[in-house]
Design brief:
The chain has about 55 residues and is mainly alpha-helical. Helix content is about 75%, strand content about 0%. The protein has one domain. It starts with 10 loop residues before the first helix and ends with a helix.
Length: about 55
């Protein structure tokens, strides 16, 4: 299930992602994918914890 997503980001974040890409020697798309995957995992864990608490 591949989707194309367009996201607007500010220049500071864009610069940071570009720098990470250069330092890690990976494409920008991989940096963004990793950030999004980590965010999804954190979001899902947060939801699970909320459900346990409530």
């Amino acid at each position: 299930m591949n989707k194309v997503v367009t996201v607007r980001i500010n220049k500071e974040i864009q610069k940071g992602i570009t720098e990470l890409s250069e330092v890690a020697n990976v494409p920008v798309s991989k940096v963004i994918r990793t950030i999004l995957n980590d965010y999804i995992v954190l979001y899902q864990n947060n939801k699970k914890n909320e459900n346990k608490a409530g």
